[in-house]
Amino acid sequence: MVNFISKYAGKINPLSLKEYKDRGGFQGFEKALFQMSPSEVIDEIKDSNLKGRGGASFPTGLKWQFVAAEGASEKYVICNADEGEPGTFKDQVLLEGSPMQIIEGMMIAAYAVGATKGFIYIRGEYSKEQVIFKNAIEVLRNEGYLGKHILGQDFEFDLEVRSGAGAYVCGEETALIESIEGNPGRSRFKPPYPPQFGLWGKPTLVNNVETLANIPLIISGGAEEYKKYGTASSSGTKLISVSGNVVNRGVFEVEFGTTLREIIYDICGGIKKNKQLKFVQLGGSSGACIPESLLDLKLDFNVLKKHGIGLGSGAILVVDEETCILDFIKMTTKFFNHESCGKCTTCREGNRHICKIIDRIIHGNGAERDLRLMIEIATIMKESSLCGLGQAAPTAILTTLKYFNGEYMEHINGFCRSGVCHPKGEVKING
Amino acid sequence: MAKLKVYIDGQEIIVDENTTILEAAREINVDIPTFCYHPDQKVKGNCRICIVEVEGYNSFVAACCTPVRAGMVIRTNTKKIRESRKLILKMILANHHGECLSCRRNGNCELQSLSQELRVQENDLDQFVEDLSIDRSNPSIVRDSNKCIKCGRCVEVCHDVQGVGAIYNINRSSDMKIAPAYNKDLCEVQCVYCGQCINVCPVGAIYEKDDTEAVWDAIEDSKKHVVVQMAPAVRVALGEEFGMEAGRIVTGKIVSFLRKIGFDGVFDTNFTADLTIIEEGNELLQRIQQGKNLPMLTSCSPGWIRFVESFYPEVIGHLSTCKSPQQMFGALTKTYYAEKVGIDPKDIIVVSIMPCTAKKTEAQRPEMTDSGYQDVDIVITTRELARMIKQSGIKVDQLEEEHFNNPFGISSGAGAVFGATGGVMEAALRTVYEVVSGEELEKIDFENLRGIDGFKEATVEIGEVVVKVAVVNGLKNAKMILDLIKEGKADYHFIEVMCCPGGCIGGGGQPIPSTNEVKEKRINAIYQVDLTSALRKSHLNPVVKTLYEEFLEKPLGEKSHELLHTHYHDESEE
């Protein structure tokens, strides 16, 4: 465990500019503003090899460069604080504990890309955090850190808090933009991407809370110093939210390169009641279900990619042997069937077909044909859906079908090894 | 613009950057199937039917919304693509009330064609067809959500083209529906009944209320004297329903058919269009003289009237008080005509054939009873006329062409051009110019007022006044003008507004498809009708003259006010 980007959270009064500055706050911004050109800031971020922490792990510096390259006079910086991925609560720690760090990140970003206006889109359920941010913005405005002529320089930036009504899809950047515009949260097709055509059609930078929290530290300490954390392909640290059947649940900051096994058994104290681990779902409900045999995988974008796994938001859901795979998948699919925006065919229709098939299998009315159909539908959702929600929704199904296919077959044959489901069919334990 | 080289199914093609894969493929005649795509609308990317493979990508991309990149290697027709498209289509079908045989769009349905094209032979998916109630709450439009495939075309036309916003996506995921707010019925929201949503619906989820049975019943009722009028836009579109090229003029065949099935009088709405010009032209002159309620706005498009009443009640005073030609016809038939033929108006049934769904509602307005009876009894659309022809077993293409009956069968080319955007204005200018100046108008074709553009303007010197006019079509464009009027910035004398894009030829009751390409052909045909007319100015119509001599006395006279003019109401929600 490390205390790098989480070093302020819980240690200072989140609304005290003095306490934040006493511990090094705003050094990054001041360095950028007084000593660096916008393009030098972008180069520094690119050098740091920082990748987006929201789930898609896109290189942050490159994204900034895209926005900076656009000629428009009006550009926006948006902080995506719509932390809606089930099992993910790491941004909340930063939002509550260190709002000025995030705002500083946004200010540096705005300086680098040439934006004067920002929005922080905070999840509807995070009402406390919305209040904290409104207050933090007020403090910074009064102290001359937001508004016109910031710190006496020819740089202007201000931001507003926005929020939706809690739709999961609004965490998807284009749906988020729609929501800020006052429309229902439905994803746009891409391209054009937000750096070219974002909020109100203007070039827009959308970064996750945790990504932005890295920025002041990269600028103040330099990219080289930053890269001492993590691995060659994945520099820095990651906030992980651990939940499920582990002894210690919560948010932890770890360096890239830490293995899942270290996280679960060293940091989190192992499985509750010393039970057997069944699988780990990495990255929230849209993430892969990884069996015990792969626990030595390192948190590293390249390593995971080789196994076709994404780190996602960094949520780690630990599931013990008593959980039934089908029951778990039922919950996951129900979630996506509830949260799909309904815009594209594959996501709107796919989820409910899968729900129905899972239901059939759970009740012992499934057939092998259902498995085939489910794979077909899950695959088409992954390959043809309009946005990340639909593309990632079937990840848990596809990975459990890969690693726990036997349990699906057992249910089809009328047996649930966890005793959770009550299949009506014939029991053929050795069938 | 930079050029890019891409490869589609092994064929090399050079296209402009920003070309989509779909457009690039069409350039080399590779037909990628589409579904939510509509040539006159924004790209939506919803349905995912147009997916293709791109080398190096690990998932499909939708061809409609993906721009090409240099060197892209695209495959549009592999086994994997064919099967994936089929599965997507099966998902759509699993949520579609697929009773094709009884469906209004049987034989003209994009979902049917696509199912054939992609060879869907059986659907092994679970079916999710709900049993939602069908909204028949109003006289014009029926909505059957059980057939809706959520392409979003109707929503786009209602919001972005018409600026009405009567329907929207409600709920989300598989509960998503297209409906008025709070799932109300159409009659409870401010729908103007223009029917543009019908024209873009790929399936039978929205359609006109069918009144053909009432027409058959009327004709069969031997105690009734049943007359019919036909609007100018019908004759240039009906042929499309019978496989003819868009823009074929089939006036004589329709007249012949209508007479054959038993109508007692077959008349032309173009006649009352001429009459409208006389009344409206004089009204304009009066307003110019008095400097009151200018600019004057035309009033023949009932969707437009509802729009003003619902959203801009403060502008009502600018509307011409003239009834639409349809309603003038009804009022005159049950008075002047009834007297002339010696039939009690209670025994007369007036049927209209209109390109328009809003006309059905217009006929039922409580004011439209100045004859002492409901002036127009039954309104059917061009599509319903086609349905009647098909039902009758009469081969319309083989019918001899016949002429309209007198007296309301003589009309000018000026009456005919009412069917196209700019037409009412052009007809009015032809007449107003000559009435005011006493000179003959030499160049009577106002070409700059023609065409499908949403906004056109012109100035014409008439006597001592330089008359400034504008023409708009589509309610979103009308909104722009209305806002100018509200701000006092519209320095026009006269503005023609047609609710539907392209004018009546693009009405909500016209044959489907009704794309811009088709509409342009219909418009050309309308001007062809004008050009080949013996008379081209409304005030030269001899029957109109006789009508004033025998019955109305003078334009804007007492009788005119009683029968040919109307008033409007504030129908806004506040």
Helical content of chain B, roughly?
25-40%
Derived structural class of chain B: alpha/beta
Q: How would a textbook summarize the main sheet of chain B?
A: 5 strands, mixed
- How would you name the oligomeric state of the polypeptide chains in this document? heterodimer
Radius of gyration of chain B: 25 Å
Order of helices and strands of chain A: HHHHEHHEHEHEHHEEHEEHEHHHHHH
**CATH class bucket of the largest domain in chain B:** Alpha Beta
- Overall pLDDT level of chain B: 96
Widest beta sheet: strand line-up of chain A: 6-5-9-7-8
Low-pLDDT residue spans of chain A? none
Structural class of chain A: alpha/beta
Principal-axis shape of chain A equals globular
Can you name the CATH architecture of the largest domain in chain A? 3-Layer(aba) Sandwich
- With helices defined by DSSP (H or I, 4 residues minimum), what is the helix count of chain B? 18
Mean pLDDT of chain A: 95
What is the CATH third-level topology name of the largest domain in chain B?
Answer: Rossmann fold
CATH topology of the largest domain in chain A: Rossmann fold
Count of β-strands of chain B: 17
Residue share in β-strands of chain B: 5-15%
Question: Could you characterize what this model shows?
Answer:
The complex is a heterodimer of chains A (431) and B (574). Chain A has 431 residues and is of the alpha/beta class. Chain A has three domains: 17-226, NADH-ubiquinone oxidoreductase 51kDa subunit (Rossmann fold, 3-Layer(aba) Sandwich), CATH 3.40.50; 237-320, Ubiquitin-like (UB roll), CATH 3.10.20.600; 325-412, de novo design (two linked rop proteins), CATH 1.20.1440. Chain A contains 18 helices and nine strands. Chain A has helices at 17-22, 27-35, 38-48, 60-69, 90-97, 99-113, 127-142, 173-180, 209-221, 223-226, 260-267, 301-306, 325-339, 345-362, 368-384, 388-392, 395-403, 405-412, and strands at residues 76-81, 117-122, 158-162, 204-208, 237-244, 250-255, 277-282, 288-291, 315-320. Chain A has a five-stranded mixed β-sheet, with helices on both faces. In chain A, helix 2 crosses helix 9 and helix 15 (368-384) crosses helix 17 (395-403). The longest helix of chain A has 18 residues, at 345-362. Chain B folds into three domains: 3-77, Ubiquitin-like (UB roll) (Roll); 119-208, 2-Layer Sandwich (Alpha-Beta Plaits), CATH 3.30.70.20; 212-563, 3-Layer(aba) Sandwich (Rossmann fold). Chain B has 18 helices and 17 strands. In chain B, the strands form five sheets. A five-stranded mixed β-sheet of chain B has the order 2-1-5-3-4, with helices on both faces. In chain B, strand 13, helix 11 (358-363) and strand 14 (378-381) form a beta-alpha-beta unit. The termini of chain B are far apart. Classes of the chains: A alpha/beta (431), B alpha/beta (574). Chains A and B meet through helix 13, helix 14 and helix 15 of A and helix 2 of B.
